[in-house]
Amino acid sequence: MKLQLITVCILIGILPIFAMSQLLLKTYERRATDQKISELAHNITIISNLLLSNGFFASAESPDINGILSEIAQVADIYEGRILIVDSGLAIRYDTYGLEEGKTLISEEAVQAVRGTNGKYLDRENQYVELTYPVINTDTKEVVGGIITSFSIVGIQDIYDNLQQAAVLMFLVLAILVCTCAILYGNFYLKPLKQMTSSFDRWSDGLMDEKIEFKGFKEMETISDSFNHMLSRLQKLEDSRQEFVSNVSHELKTPITSIKVLSDSLLSQEDVPNELYREFLVDITEEVERENKIITDLLSLVKMDKTAGEMNIASININELVEQILKRLQPIANKRSIELVFESFRPVMAEVDEVKLSLAINNLIENAIKYNFDEGWVHVSLNADHKFFYLKVADSGVGIPEDAQDSIFERFYRVDKARSRETGGTGLGLSITRNAILMHRGAIKVYSKEQEGTTFTVRIPLTYIA
User: Fold this and answer.
1) pTM value > 0.70
2) HEC sequence for the chain
3) Does 244 map to a domain?
4) Which of 185, 378, 408, 428 is the most exposed place for a label (fewest CB within 10 A)?
């Protein structure tokens, strides 16, 4: 990624500079050449008019001819070139070099000139330009001769070469600056990613209490906040898992130890009375039930995994389902004089998995009873609209601390460890409940205040969508 970033920065920084410098140089060369040709063409037009007005092609004895020829020679010197003047028969009447006068010029350019056609030929390799212009009598419209010029563009090429050398030098300097800036920027930009990689390595070594702090880029700060939040949740989950393993180990070991002690006591005695046998067997049964409760919750959690669970959907009367659950839990509530109230606003039929939903509702109501005060109350209400049904379970119990409300649905989490152990809780009930509701494409929320009670609200679609 670093190499790609630096390469892109270099290409973006260097290629436009190179392209622009070449464009400017070519533009200069073209415009300088065009300007020089335009200036020479203007001078040739003046020379042509002077030659015609002084009757050069009719007679070379005019007193002003020498002056005109002198001006032509000056023009040739100024432009570092050569000017030939031929008549309509291609005879050379004047040569600024004085070498070809009186001879006949046989060339394509000369023929084109006496035929009345302008011509231009640019030879970049030899660095010269050749121009041909016809001399036309304005009165008779007859071509009386032609002017053939050739001039050097070495001066333009020298300036072009100097500018190109300067451009190359500037390009190299800018290229070095761009490369340096690209490398520095790449290192600066990727520094947070290196820190992140280093943090990941430390996390893999078990140092999960270390936070990431990225400064400089808002996006990287957002990523660091998200990673820190994720890490915090992972750390909580790991702490809960370790605590759960410790608790489950203790909970599983305690009943087994008790059963072993009770069994050894019976085996070590002879002629044990039936009453004592019965008392010990009752205790052993209670320990077995306690062990079974833990194992059942663990198995339920595995089955409730929403990614692996299989839904057995059927149209169920939710009113009757809630009433059955309340009837089953009524004896538990009666032991502590807790009032169970069910309020149904309308009959509700919904497509649900009866076993899973029953387990979820049972957990909510049973928790409302367990974590309540003696002579308290639990109110269960059921309502529906055209799309969802709504179940509310409210109690007058001990409540849930505000800082723990975001964690109560996590696996293995228990608000009060000692109280959960006394009530036989394993920290899995609400996690099972939440999974069951999510599997129905529903939602669950909690509202609670310590020592004032807790309210769980559940929303589930009337029609199951796979």
Assistant:
1) no
2) CHHHHHHHHHHHHHHHHHHHHHHHHHHHHHHHHHHHHHHHHHHHHHHHHHHHHCCCCCCCCCCCHHHHHHHHHHHHHHCCEEEEEEECCCEEEEECCCCCCCCECCCHHHHHHHCCCCEEEEECCCCEEEEEEEEECCCCCCEEEEEEEEEECHHHHHHHHHHHHHHHHHHHHHHHHHHHHHHHHHHHHHHHHHHHHHHHHHHHCCCCCCCCCCCCCHHHHHHHHHHHHHHHHHHHHHHHHHHHHHHHHHHHHHHHHHHHHHHHHHHHCCCCCHHHHHHHHHHHHHHHHHHHHHHHHHHHHHHCCCCCCCCCEEEEEHHHHHHHHHHHHHHHHHHCCCEEEEEECCCCEEEEEHHHHHHHHHHHHHHHHHCCCCCCEEEEEEEECCCEEEEEEEECCCCCCHHHCCCCCCCCCCCCHHHHHHCCCCCCHHHHHHHHHHHCCCEEEEEEECCCEEEEEEEEECCCCC
3) yes
4) 185
